[in-house]
Queue: 2 jobs
Job 1
Amino acid sequence: MSHILILPGDGIGPEIVQEAVRVLRAAEQRFGLDISLDEAPVGGAAYDLHGDPLPESTLNKARAADAILFGSIGGPKWDTIERDKRPERGLLRLRSSLGLFANLRPAILFPQLADASSLKAEVVSGLDILIVRELTGGIYFGQPRGIREENGERVGFNTDVYSESEMRRIAKVAFELAGQRNNKVCSVDKANVLEVTELWKEVVTDAAKDYPNIELSHMYVDNAAMQLVRAPKQFDVIVTGNLFGDILSDEAAMLTGSIGMLPSASLDENRKGLYEPCHGSAPDIAGQGIANPLATIMSLAMLMRYSLERGDVADAIQAAVEQVLDQGLRTADIYTEGTRKVSTEEMGAAVAEAL
Amino acid sequence: MSHILILPGDGIGPEIVQEAVRVLRAAEQRFGLDISLDEAPVGGAAYDLHGDPLPESTLNKARAADAILFGSIGGPKWDTIERDKRPERGLLRLRSSLGLFANLRPAILFPQLADASSLKAEVVSGLDILIVRELTGGIYFGQPRGIREENGERVGFNTDVYSESEMRRIAKVAFELAGQRNNKVCSVDKANVLEVTELWKEVVTDAAKDYPNIELSHMYVDNAAMQLVRAPKQFDVIVTGNLFGDILSDEAAMLTGSIGMLPSASLDENRKGLYEPCHGSAPDIAGQGIANPLATIMSLAMLMRYSLERGDVADAIQAAVEQVLDQGLRTADIYTEGTRKVSTEEMGAAVAEAL
Ligand SMILES: CC(C)[C@H](C(=O)O)[C@@H](O)C(=O)O
Ligand SMILES: CC(C)[C@H](C(=O)O)[C@@H](O)C(=O)O
């Protein structure tokens, strides 16, 4: 029996997660899976209930689970509360507490949605990049950090820090994944300015020796931000630190024009993982039943593939999503003339049906 | 008499700077300017001559000058030398020693080159963004930094640090410049994770009180990287720290498709400045006479505008550049069928002639 914890979160989180659960139920039936589901509050919702965006009870359930399906968190309601209680902090603590150091963010262009991209068709058609972002280190978690007084004024400071072993383990994940794809890894750094990334470049280069079939290249982060716009198809797997990964994965996601379609996985050493859509909690459309559940449904597919080692189920979910797209079903965010606009629930039901 | 120091640097630097000087000579004649020119080595060229990418003699000349026209630096030849001697370090020390804290990077789409963009025409036509990047602080210069031993392994670390006064003075530059444009400033931070940028957001918000006509907005850096791809025309002036500015300005530059066309200015408190093209030293095409000198020529225009307070001369240079583009002259990097391919020198001569 596999234990999956559902963390709906805030904004559109509950609606989209509900549709992913619908698809999960359909997958259970079709494949005879043995799954137990539990649910817990996280983010602003948890703060409202327990005064904490990651209550102890939620963290305990997360520790016990084999995999976590996460909706989305945050909203203007919690933007002004004490820093440590904000929804984002709950997510950061969850990533860190569970050791979810490997963040996998695919940027894939669905041929059915090619028009949605702001880039020319020939630049992005067939785009399929995987960004591997280190998720539990770097400047996100580095100490010392804070705001201090100095010479009569305030000074803000943060520390970007990575150890060799942290660098090596994320590099390995990138090399392993590239081996299942097109055997190319581009490591992104700012080694010409930052010592921490100078070491990064050295360690990644050294780690590559165990992967003679992988072609490793290095790129400065400013150049990578340019190359993603100029010629994104030059990339297969990109591996980088927490902050650069945050920036570049969002940039890469937007190349597809449909961020509502992009899933992500955050894995620990044992492939236990947290799965969440790349998009945010979209408080402006929450509760209206118009959000796109497909990124969450495809996050479920990643969950099947990586944590439950059921690539067959993942493939079937992915195929079901493609099928409803081929049928012309679209939520509002990906709607174009000539297609059929459907609600969050209709979309979820259609994928479950196709499965 | 105005003193301008020429720092040709490496790669294509000398070729492109030579054409900018040709245009400067033409401007001198037409406008009766009184200018003294001097030249000094910098970057790899200076390392080869003096063992230092920023020799004392070059720095002294830079201090004495009213403005500096800079080519480009770096190349594979110097990639493996001792870290502190690399060409980039010379440039960083120059920025820091002269207090050039305000880096202005326009991203403008030339209608004549609209096809060069990898983005759809409607997304970028008429694009005109100004990125104001803080250039002498942040993680580029923060202490402590380095690589240390810890628990039997190496750990790399850097410090991102900004004082209130540093934040306030760059914010002011952005507000002033926005006042001469479309009165909009978007401040980019990662205030939901990094304390240093939380303070940034607060200080920029406070500084805005002196500029009631400017509309200030805030955006997280990951979202900014996305929005630049999705809908870049929503921006007027973007203000941000050193590292985010490095990344976002290169991304924005690439939206235009012709990085060979983009100039930049780095100003101190008194509008003394260093002017350089946004593109790099392109060692692969150096010495072939095919590099595009227009970014350097437009950097000269910025020099006229900001350091010499000769907006009229700047406008004339800019108009001359537009004129040769209208005539269909193109260097190899911006060549398309139906236009006339010219050399670096022919392009420089044509602009000088048009002036
Ligand atoms: C919400 C925020 C803390 C988070 C991050 O920066 O990691 C988000 O942008 C993401 O990429 O998952
Ligand atoms: C060469 C390098 C140190 C420099 C920087 O990072 O500032 C360059 O990328 C730039 O943007 O001018």
Job 2
Amino acid sequence: MARPKPLSGFPEFLPAQRMIEQTVIDLVRETFELHGFAGIETRAVETMESLTRKGEITKEVYVVRRLHAEPGDAGDDLGLHFDLTVPLARYVLENSGHLQFPFRRYQIQKVWRGERPQEGRYREFAQADIDIIGENTLADHHDIEAPLVMLEALENLHDRLGLPPVRMHVNNRKLSEGFYRGLGIEDTAAVLQRVDKFDKIGPAAVTELLTGELGLPDEVAAKCVRLATVCTTDDSFADRVAELGVRSEMLDEGLEALTNVINAARAQVPGRMVADLKIARGLDYYTGTVYETELVGHEHLGSISSGGRYDSLATDGKRTYPGVGISLGLTRLLVPLLAKGELTASRSVPSCVVVAVDAEETRSTAMQVAAILRGRGIACEVAPKADKYGKQIRYADRRGIPYVWFGGIDGEVKDIRSGEQTMADAAAWLPPQADRRPRVIAVGD
Amino acid sequence: MARPKPLSGFPEFLPAQRMIEQTVIDLVRETFELHGFAGIETRAVETMESLTRKGEITKEVYVVRRLHAEPGDAGDDLGLHFDLTVPLARYVLENSGHLQFPFRRYQIQKVWRGERPQEGRYREFAQADIDIIGENTLADHHDIEAPLVMLEALENLHDRLGLPPVRMHVNNRKLSEGFYRGLGIEDTAAVLQRVDKFDKIGPAAVTELLTGELGLPDEVAAKCVRLATVCTTDDSFADRVAELGVRSEMLDEGLEALTNVINAARAQVPGRMVADLKIARGLDYYTGTVYETELVGHEHLGSISSGGRYDSLATDGKRTYPGVGISLGLTRLLVPLLAKGELTASRSVPSCVVVAVDAEETRSTAMQVAAILRGRGIACEVAPKADKYGKQIRYADRRGIPYVWFGGIDGEVKDIRSGEQTMADAAAWLPPQADRRPRVIAVGD
């Protein structure tokens, strides 16, 4: 068999890179759990009916079919989920009788999209989502809570693992929609859709779309574009909006809600959130606060964490389930940092120690030493061959394993980086904390 | 939307059940890492060419296709992996230049099979695999190591989480094949295939197959069946085989290898392994030691952990990659125990504490208390509504959260199980260790 080639759009990691991804996932999960979010996993497949309810998404779906399925076989009309929100909606409806609301859940899983692969776009990628789902109602303070939990997770990745800091851009759909209504615009969604292209095409082109395609008067279009340019690190965005002289009840609601989010974030994670009134989140089902997040210094990656408030995640006729959620694109965040070598690992294996083997006859002694070390939480492996010691040290060195153990339980341990070798008792010796587990190393550390 | 129904063969867990699965996965991963296995994940899809190389497997494959793929589109000839071994073989070939051999890897992922769903058979299920892969050669002692690592993981699940104990049944293909050859049989695979049905159809039916279908003389068939009945908890199986008066070099090799495995297991995990000479592992690619594992008291589930030695996982023409591996069927192990209620969780959410809210105006104080507790590793959530305290306590109770915090940082904490309420400082209070995280509770605990 010739050497297989990678599949475009399906990134895979070498062991050291996977260790970094796992460390990121563990830390994100820890943050979510500290905030009381329960983890769930949903099956990889949903019915095509459930996946294609929003027509415009169908182009990205991977259909799944048994190789020997007969046409019309029940249960074979399936596709891979393209996000974790559609599965959550289905899970909530299916299990509503067994869940407590508000239901706080996190979900860290792969999703699949049949998109054309390009930088930052993958066909298989991992997401980490949090959502808070209410039954019929959900208090507004969860709009503040959700982004703060995600920002805390991202701040932990920055502080503890050295990932770049982030900047979360927040808006409120009611603010934009209320503003447009205050201007007498009826098809507010059409305006939102065009303003959403602001970053890509710039203010002049957006103005042209608004006056041309939508036939808005120049003055009205100009105000829509001026609203989109408002971006502040504090609650002064409200004054900037007031200067535009537009009023509506919905606009006031949106301004108040956004003010609360921005002020809470300023208090808890200063400098990480901005009010950015051009954020629209495309054609999504959001109805209130919306979030997007840039990685500082890597803005070209686009948003690595997005979400918002939706008034109806799902409904079963009797009850509706409003929610607020935010998703972290793990693959989108990590693949570029790993590819550029901005994140590396201190070693490619969990082992902290290689226990050397004198001769095959004494392998059981080495195994005993290893068992004692493991019992004390020290990851180790026994050398695979009773080679000359130099070769066994090279075995450790090639994997980045810092220590080699010689002799029995009362033996000697060599730090192969310094060459220092000391007497050691397997039942008592401890490596320094920093050597216990492989570490994530960020450029600039 | 009507309430969706579960998809047969695609089990999903409620949050408390998922917490149990996650705890099992964490513990298994910890054991694997202590033994120096590095985690990898492979993409969910492989090329159909790679999946169908073993013809008899094709019937189980799920084909994956972009909904709007044109016929003949490149990169769309894909299927979901049905195990983690085919992907490992491809990963090793693809990345051989970047891996260190022997390559010790674990992999915990979902796999998919288009099989008819039935008890113990799923269309989507999770596996936890360990494999040790050599480059051209791999020492025999890894045949001992692999099952001992898996038995240690299973023993940890038994000791720490209360899962049932296991019994691993081990044989060696060389032993069986060498025995058949010593009897003058040429098509040893045909005999192995029929002996593999021993547990299902019994000795009389196997004898009939051997004499009927294969035309073996009665005496020869009888010896094959007698070999299959040998099952010992120590190395006395070798004496039992000797009594049958068959000799061959390959048989001696197999006997010695199996003796080494059994004796090592007796020393390290007494009572958990038996030599069972009817174990064949079907038509798999195994060439040496083979493993199957029963859950004691749940033998009807079949093997929950299987594997073996293979002389060639993959080859690129220049090099071959022999290996030994063993796989744990997480879904197969857990779904029945969860369904029967033999494993439950102490609560359905990670939160240890609900911080009560006096009035919406003091929500920020409650958030502050929660932040201090979290900073000390105590998972908590702030009550979603400033309801009467009784209602906030019920909020905690319905989720199994043991503590409710009242007042500010210098507040009071109530254990809602005992009703005891005490003064507490958020910066110093610690719940008992057993309450810190949700616990897995096994029937009989």
